[in-house]
Amino acid sequence: MVQKCVLTSIIPMTDELPVHVTVVIPTRNEEEAIVDTIRSVPNDGWCKELSFLVVDGNSSDRTRELAEQEGATVFLEPRRGYGRAYRTGFEIAPGEIIVTMDADCTYPGEEVPALVRKLVEEELEFITCDRLRRAEEGAMSGLHGFGNWVLSFTARMLFWYGVHDSQSGMWVFRKSILQDPKMRPTNDGMPLSEEMKINARRQIGKKKAIEVSVPYRKRVGQAEINTWGDGWKNLKFLFVKRLGLNRESTPWGPES
Ligand SMILES: Nc1nc2c(ncn2[C@@H]2O[C@H](COP(=O)(O)OP(=O)(O)OP(=O)(O)O)[C@@H](O)[C@H]2O)c(=O)[nH]1
Ligand SMILES: [Mg+2]
Question: What domains does the chain contain, in order, with CATH numbers?
Answer without folding.
Answer: 15-242 (3.90.550.10)
